[in-house]
Write a structure and sequence with these properties.
The structure holds 3 protein chains of 3 kinds. By secondary structure, chain A is mainly alpha-helical. Helix content of chain A is 49%, strand content 11%. In chain A, the strands form 3 sheets. Chain A has a 3-stranded antiparallel β-sheet with strand order 1-2-3. A 3-stranded antiparallel β-sheet of chain A has the order 6-7-8. A two-stranded antiparallel sheet of chain A has the order 4-5. In chain A, helix 5 packs antiparallel against helix 12 and helix 12 packs parallel to helix 17. The longest helix of chain A has 29 residues. The relative contact order of chain A is 0.18. Chain B is an alpha/beta fold. In chain B, 21% of the residues lie in helices and 23% in strands. In chain B, helix 1 crosses helix 2. The chains are: A mainly alpha, B alpha/beta, C alpha/beta. Chains B and C meet through loops of B and helix 4 of C. Bound molecules: iron/sulfur cluster. The site of iron/sulfur cluster has 11 residues of chain C, from helix 3 and helix 5.
Chain lengths: 407, 177, 214
C-alpha cells in the first residue's frame, strides 16, 4: 500500500527512495503511554516499516517468580498489568490452584468473578479513555477516570489499597468482603450505565474520532489467529474465543453473558468491542452481586494449603501451627513435581501462567503468557501503509501495558 | 513428571496423539499429562515437522504460548533446557502442550516462525532470556535486554540481583546538568 | 499569605506599579507557582500520576497542571515508576535536556529505591544517578501524596531559590547513596560488562566502572 504512494512521489531522477526518512518514536512519548520505542521508516507521512524496540521496563518479574513463594509472588504479578491488577492475581492463583489441585469455595469464586469483571471495566475504561485522549478527545478521558476512581474506592474498601491490592491468596482471599462493600458495588453499578452512555455519546458518533479509527490498522481473522492474538483484539477481528466460555473457570459457567465480537478488525471495532464488553461485565457483576453465596471464602483449611483466618491463629494452637507452617521458609506447600499451564481471560486477552514446580513452595519457572507482548508484536503489521498520526490510534486500540509487555 | 506408562490421554486427544506419532522421528514420543494438560514430548530434530503437522492436520491453529525453562539441577532432569509450545484449536478448544529440549553448550531448536508468525517475538524472548538459538528465525536479536548485555538472565546460574550491570552507569550531578 | 515566600512588598498595596522585593524571592515566587512537570511515567505509578491530573484530584489547583511532554519546556521531572537499565540513559538525557532551573520528584518506592524489584535489571533508586529533590513513598503513592510532594517542592523553591540558581552550585555529586558495587561478591565485582548505551544514541557517558575510585 505504502509503496505505491512511494512510487508516486519518488524523485523524477530515479534515485529511488530519496524522500525516505526515519522517525524515532519514544521511548518517552505521550502516545506510547508508557515506555516503548518505535523506529518508523517513513516516506513522507506514510509508514513503510515500523520496528518496535521494547524492554524499557524489563524488571525481571519472571526471575522474581522463582524466588518468591506462591503467596508472595502475588504482589509482583499485581504490578504486571497495572491497569487491571486483580485480574493478574486471579490468573496467577488460578494457575497455582490448578497445580495444587485446590477447589475454591463458591463465595470465593463469586467474589473473584466480581473483581475480575470490575477490573475488566477498569481496564477498558482506561483503554478507551486513553485512546480517545490520544486522538484529541480529552473529555472522554476525564469521564472514564471518574468511573475508575469509583472502582479504586471499591478496591480500597475491600483490601486497603487503591490498586495493587494483593487480594487473592492460594485457595482463597486475603479477607472477606462486607456489606458496605456490596453497597458500594451496587451504587457503582447504578451509576455506571449513565457514565458509559456519556462516553458513548462523546465518541461513538464523533466524526473526528471515527475518521481516525475506521479502517485503520485492520487485522483479519486469519492473521489474528496466525499471530496469536487473543482477547478483545482477536474478538474484534471475528475470532469467537473467550476463555470464560471456552474453558470456564471460577463461576463463569453459571453466569449468563454474551461474548462481544466484531468482524471489521480495525481500531474502531476494537474500541466498540471494549465498550460493549463493559456492559457485559456490568451485567455479570449485577448478577453476581445479587447471587453472592454465603459461607467461607477460604477453601478447606484442613488441607494445609490455605492460610487460616486471623481468629483461629490467635485463639487456637492448631491455627497457629498451621499459619506458622505455611510461612516458614522450609515448610509451606509441597506441590507435585510437575508443570502446568492454566490461563484466564484477562481484560487484555489470554493471561496464562506456565508453572514448573520442583516440589518447592516457589515456582521453578513462572512463565507469564503476556497478552500485551503478543499484541504489540502485531503492531508493525498493523501500522504498515498508514500515516504517522495513525500510530496513536493503533497503539491506543491495542492497549499496550508496558509492564506486561516487558515484565 | 508422572510416569509416562501410567498415562493415557483423554478421548479428545487420541487422534492428535496418533497423528503426532505418525511424524518421522516421533514414533517413540512420550505422552504425559497433568491436571487438564496433555503433553507430548518430541525430540528436537522432529519438533518442527510435528508442529507443522499438528497445525495443518489437527487444526491446532493458535500458538498460545511458547517459552522455555532451565532445568539445571531440576529433579530427574535429563536435558538442560525444555521448550514448550502451547497449542489450541480455535474451533474445538482442544489444547495441547508440545515439549522439546535443548542442551549446552550450544542450545538450538528449529524455529516455528514459518508455521506461526506469532512465534516471532516469543522466540526472540526465549533467545534473549535463555540463549537458546532458534534456527531459521529471520531476525533473532535480543528483545528485552540491551544489546550490549552479555548474559542470559533467566538461566539458573545467573543470580537474581545480577552481576552488577544495573550499577554500571554514569552518575549525573547537579553541576553537569 | 505571608508564608510561602511571597515577596513582602506585594502585601502592601502596590502603588504606581512598583513592587519592592528581593529579586531572588520574586523569582522563586514566580517559579514555584508555575511548575511545569515533565511526566516521566514508566510504570504503575504513572497511572496514579494520570489520576492526579484527572478531575477528582486535579493538580491544577496547585499550579502544576501544565504537563508538557517535551523536556525543553519543563522544569519539574516527575519520575513515576521503576527505571531499568535500558531506560536510565534515556532518563538522564531527558534531564540534561531540561532547562535550568529544574527540580526532580522521585515518585514511588521503585523510583526512590527499587521497591519490590531487587532484580538484575532495575536501578536501585534513581538518586544514585540523578539529583532528586523530593521523594514520595508508597507503592503507588496516593494522588494526595503526590500533591503534597508538589506543595513541598513549592515550599523548597520558595525557601531556597535564587535567581541565578546558586542553590544548585554547592551540590557537586548526586545526593543519593553511592554505587552499590560493594554489595556484590568480590569475585563478581569486576565482571560488570559493557557500557549500556541508550538505544537512541550511539555513544555513552562514562560509567561507574570506568571511573577511578567509584
Ligand atoms: S512503586 Fe509500586 S506502583 Fe510505583 S512503579 Fe513501583 S511497583 Fe509500580
Amino acid at each position: 500500500m505504502g509503496l505505491t504512494l512511494a512510487d508516486a512521489i519518488a524523485p523524477p531522477d530515479g534515485s529511488g527512495h530519496e524522500c525516505q526518512w526515519t522517525l524515532n518514536f519514544g521511548p518517552q512519548h505521550p502516545a506510547t503511554h508508557t515506555t516503548l520505542r518505535l523506529v518508523l521508516n517513513l516516506d513522507g507521512e506514510v509508514i513503510l516499516k515500523a520496528t518496535p524496540d521494547i524492554g524499557f521496563l524489563h524488571s525481571g518479574f519472571e526471575k522474581l517468580g522463582e524466588h518468591l513463594d506462591f503467596n508472595q509472588y502475588v504482589t509482583i504479578v499485581d504490578r504486571m498489568n497495572y491497569v487491571s491488577p486483580v485480574a493478574n492475581e486471579i490468573a496467577w492463583h488460578h494457575s497455582v490452584e490448578t497445580l495444587l489441585d485446590i477447589k475454591l469455595t463458591p463465595r470465593c469464586q463469586m467474589i473473584r468473578v466480581i473483581f475480575a469483571e470490575l477490573m475488566r471495566i477498569h481496564d477498558h475504561l482506561l483503554a478507551c479513555g486513553a485512546a480517545a485522549l490520544d486522538l484529541g478527545a480529552f473529555t472522554a478521558f476525564l469521564y472514564a477516570f471518574n468511573q475508575r476512581e469509583l472502582i479504586n474506592d471499591i478496591n480500597e474498601w475491600a483490601t486497603g489499597q487503591r490498586f495493587h491490592p494483593s487480594y487473592t491468596r492460594v485457595g482463597g482471599l486475603q479477607r472477606d468482603v462486607d456489606d458496605d462493600w456490596i453497597g458500594r458495588v451496587r451504587s457503582f453499578l447504578k451509576g455506571f450505565p449513565a457514565a458509559h452512555a456519556d462516553i458513548c455519546r462523546l465518541l461513538n458518533r464523533n466524526r473526528i474520532f471515527i475518521d481516525r479509527c475506521k479502517g485503520i490498522g485492520v487485522l483479519t481473522r486469519e492473521e489474528a489467529i496466525n499471530r496469536s492474538a487473543t482477547g478483545p483484539v482477536a474478538r474484534a477481528s471475528g475470532v469467537v474465543r473467550d476463555l470464560r466460555k471456552n474453558r470456564p473457570y471460577l463461576a463463569y459457567e453459571a453466569i449468563d453473558f454474551d461474548v462481544v465480537c466484531s468482524q471489521d478488525g480495525d481500531c474502531l471495532a476494537r474500541y466498540l468491542v471494549r465498550m460493549e464488553e463493559m456492559l457485559e461485565s456490568h451485567k455479570i457483576i449485577a448478577w453476581a452481586i445479587e447471587n453472592l453465596p454465603s459461607g467461607p471464602v477460604n477453601s478447606n483449611v484442613d488441607d494445609r494449603m490455605v492460610l487460616p483466618n486471623q481468629l483461629s491463629v490467635y485463639r487456637s494452637i492448631e491455627g497457629l501451627i498451621h499459619h506458622f507452617e505455611l510461612n516458614m521458609t522450609n515448610r509451606k506447600w509441597q506441590p507435585p513435581v510437575d508443570e502446568v499451564y492454566a490461563s484466564t481471560e484477562s481484560p487484555n486477552g489470554e493471561l496464562g501462567f506456565y508453572i514448573v514446580s520442583n516440589g518447592a513452595p516457589e515456582a521453578w519457572r513462572a512463565r507469564t503468557r503476556p497478552p500485551s507482548f503478543i499484541h504489540f508484536s502485531l503492531f508493525p503489521h498493523l501500522a504498515e501503509g498508514h500515516t504517522v498520526s495513525d500510530v496513536a490510534a493503533i497503539l491506543g486500540s491495542l492497549n499496550i501495558i508496558a509492564a506486561e509487555l516487558d515484565r | 513428571m508422572s510416569t509416562p506408562e501410567a498415562y493415557t490421554p483423554p478421548e479428545s486427544h487420541a487422534a492428535i496423539v496418533a497423528l503426532a506419532k505418525s511424524v518421522a522421528g516421533c514414533d517413540s514420543l512420550i505422552v504425559s499429562g497433568f491436571r487438564d494438560n496433555v503433553r507430548l514430548e518430541v525430540p528436537p530434530a522432529a519438533s518442527l515437522e510435528a508442529l507443522r503437522k499438528l497445525r495443518s492436520h489437527a487444526g491446532l491453529d493458535l500458538l498460545v504460548d511458547l517459552s522455555a525453562a532451565d532445568y539445571l539441577n531440576y529433579p530427574n532432569a535429563v536435558h538442560r533446557y525444555g521448550i514448550w509450545y502451547v497449542l489450541e484449536s480455535v474451533e474445538t478448544g482442544i489444547r495441547l502442550v508440545v515439549k522439546t529440549w535443548a542442551d549446552d553448550p550450544d542450545p538450538r531448536v528449529d524455529s516455528v516462525f514459518d508455521v506461526w508468525r506469532g512465534a516471532d517475538w516469543m522466540e526472540r524472548e526465549v533467545f534473549d532470556l535463555f540463549g537458546i538459538v532458534f534456527e531459521g528465525h529471520p531476525d533473532l536479536r535480543r528483545i528485552l535486554m540491551p544489546d550490549e548485555f552479555s548474559s542470559h538472565p533467566l538461566r539458573k546460574d545467573y543470580p537474581l540481583r545480577g552481576d552488577g550491570e544495573r550499577h554500571n552507569f554514569h552518575a549525573l550531578s547537579r553541576e553537569e546538568s | 499569605m505571608a508564608e510561602g515566600g511571597i515577596p513582602v512588598a506585594i502585601e502592601r498595596e502596590p502603588r504606581d506599579g512598583f513592587i519592592v522585593a528581593k529579586l531572588d524571592e520574586l523569582a522563586s515566587w514566580c517559579r514555584k507557582n508555575s511548575l511545569w512537570p515533565m511526566p516521566f511515567a514508566t510504570a504503575c505509578c504513572g497511572i496514579e500520576l494520570m489520576a492526579t491530573g484527572a478531575s477528582k484530584h486535579d493538580i491544577a489547583r496547585f499550579g502544576a497542571e501544565a504537563f508538557r511532554f517535551s523536556p525543553r519546556q519543563c522544569d519539574l521531572l516527575i519520575v513515576a515508576g521503576r527505571v531499568v537499565m535500558k531506560m536510565l540513559p534515556v532518563m538522564q538525557r531527558i534531564w540534561l535536556q531540561m532547562p535550568e532551573p529544574k527540580w526532580c520528584i522521585s515518585m514511588g518506592a521503585c523510583a526512590s529505591s527499587g521497591g519490590v524489584f531487587d532484580t538484575y535489571a532495575v536501578v536501585q533508586g534513581i538518586d544514585r544517578f540523578l539529583p532528586v529533590d523530593v521523594y514520595v513513598p508508597g507503592c503507588p503513592p496516593r494522588p494526595e501524596q503526590l500533591l503534597q510532594a508538589v506543595m513541598d517542592l513549592q515550599d523548597k523553591v520558595a525557601r531556597t531559590g535564587t535567581i541565578l540558581g546558586r542553590e544548585f552550585q554547592g551540590r557537586e555529586s548526586p545526593e543519593g547513596p553511592r554505587s552499590l558495587r560493594g554489595e556484590l561478591d568480590p569475585s563478581r565485582q569486576i565482571v560488570a560488562p559493557g557500557n549500556f548505551r541508550s538505544s537512541t544514541r550511539a555513544w555513552s557517558l562514562p560509567t561507574v566502572a570506568g571511573r577511578p575510585g567509584a
